[in-house]
Structure formats: structure tokens, C-alpha cells
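Pilot study result, target chain (378 residues):
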Amino acid sequence: MKNKIVLIVSANYFTIVKFRYFFVSKLIEHGYKVVLFASDDSMSHNSVEKLEELGATCIKSNLSRGSYSVKEATQYIYRYSQIVRRYLPSMVINFTLQPMVFGGIICRLNKLRFISVVTGLGSQYHGNTIKRWLLKFAYNLSVKYSNQIWFVSQSDAKIGTDKLHLNPKKIRVVYGAGIKIRSNKNSLVEKISTNSKTQIIYMGRIRKDKGIEDFIALANKLSSDDRFSLVIMGSMDSSDEYINTLVNQASEDGLITRIDFNYNNIQYLRTTDVLLLCSRHEGMPTVILEAMANNVIPISTNLSVIDELNRMGANIYTYAPGDIRSLIASINKIEGLTSIKKNGILNNNYEFVSKYFEQDMIADAQYQYFRELYLDYG
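Predicted structure:
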């Protein structure tokens, strides 16, 4: 290859810092010039500054999360094409849905080597609406022509080969982005609350497809049970008035405590007892891994990726989406654990994430797959 310029395209700079920072650092460490193209939205805070300090070149995109307006898409494609012509990257890595759809087509037209990173096969693969069908078509059209395709779980990779008919020789599995493992897993922390209630937390974007209605239903069911307190930490989806009203009303009624996302979210997580993931679709749920790394027992909907993690050795309680009775049964099982059994689960989960999901180890795997492709076309 003529140069060592790598273009990395993602939804926003916040997710690059949170999920790709170590990989970007690894590329720069090995002498590559890294150009980043992403949105600098309200969640990004000082993310651009952090990446520029690392040595990356940051270019801001105009594309809003989940937006498919013709105007925004046209502007985005034009800007993306400009960057490609200016920097002539030897490799492009497209993370998340929109960059993969638009970027894949641009890369094909410019005969660039590119990697598609599928961070989750979400709601676009469920349902039969015309919009979703068109989205599947565009997604498959771009991803199929990638030189490599990274999936974050074996279960998603199987969908890639079985349902999307992707070439298995192109597929690599990298287990998410990895997480920071605390050196002292037994350090004592204070509770968010001043009482001794079991604290159950929901952490993530507050959206219908994230199953937030399950959490609110649980809050209603447990409203008269003084053993529990429920916390929602996450950002509202401004486009969903029904969900926003549902959560705000639960907060006003005292059913839940509402906390906005911030850079101390792991500190909050460490002070809770149970993390609840209610999602209908996930790639590799980082919040579950973070719970296991921070002495918090996780409960999740019975997603295929959760089954995969449990088969690998994790201990994650599960329930069927919308089945609040089975959810409460899981919570009661946790409440009934002896100290010895509970500590056994916590220690097992900590060792599990330390073995498979340490962030520098994941970045090494990403770099090795990248390097494999880079050398193949050298």
C-alpha cells in the first residue's frame, strides 16, 4: 500500500472515545495516521479534544443519529467523498449502521479497502415495513462487499452467514469494545441511597426498543415493596413523547429516581446491586460487561448474545421480554442468595470479563485483524 492512512467513520465522537479509543491508540502507536469522521453531538463533550491529544485528525459530520432525511444523507455522502479524495486512505473502517450503509457504497465507488463493523443487528432486521426492507437492502449491499466484516458476537455472525448470506471467509468476531477492569474488585463503595434497599438500575438510552416499558412496569409492581429502590440513568430520546412522558411520570410519582448520563456513570453503577437490561435487540451489551466487572449482578432479557455469554461461563439472570412476573422471580432469586453464593457469582463474573473482555486485549484483536487485511493488500 502507498500510505499508512486509516479513515475511521462512526456515528459520533462520544462512542469513539467510549468504544474505540484503545483501538485508535493502537493504530497511532504502530505508526498509522488516523483520520476520524463522526458527529460532535451533545453527548460528545470533550471527546474531540481527547482524540486530538492522542494524535488523531478529527473531522465533524452533519449526520444525526437515526436520521435518514435526503438532505442530511446527501450532505453526508458529499462530505465523506471529499475526505476520501483529500486523504486517499489505504484502509477505511466503518462502525455502526449509517456509516456502513453510506460509507460502504462510497468505498466501493472509490475502490477502497474497507472493514464493516457490525455492532449489533438491531430493529432494522425485525419487522416487515417497506422502510425496514429498504434499509436491509442498502445495508446488505454495502456490507457484502466489505473486505472484512467484524461482528461483536458469534450469534450475530451466525445471522450474518445464515440470513444475510455473507461470505464466512470475510467474517471475524471481536467481542465488542472491551471494558476497563478494576484492579481491586472488592473495594468498598457507598450506596447512592442512604438506606439499605436493594438498588436496581437501568443504564442506557431511554427508548422503546431498549425495553424501558419493562422497567417502568417493574417499578409499578414493586411500588409497595420497600426492599427495593429503582434508578434510571440515561438520556431521553427527544422524538418519543410517549416514552418520555412515561418515564417523567414515574419519576414524579416517586417510583424511580432519574439520573442523566454523565462521565461518572461507572461510579454510580458500582454503588448499585442489580443491573437490568431490558433490550429487545443487542450486539454485545457493554453495560452487562461493566456490571460484571463492578460487582453488580446482571439481569437481562433472554437475548441470543446473553445465552452465548452464559454458555461461555458468565452468570447472567434472564427473563422473557415483557414478562414482569418472570423478571420479579429473577429478582427474588437474587434476594434469596446466601452471601457465599452471591460472592461466588460476583467473583465468577469478574473473572469471566477479565478473561475475555479486557479493553486492551480487545484492541489487540482488532489490530491483528486490521493488520491481516492491510498486509494481504500490501
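One observation from the pilot: DSSP finds 14 helices and 13 strands in the chain. A full batch analysis is planned for the follow-on phase.
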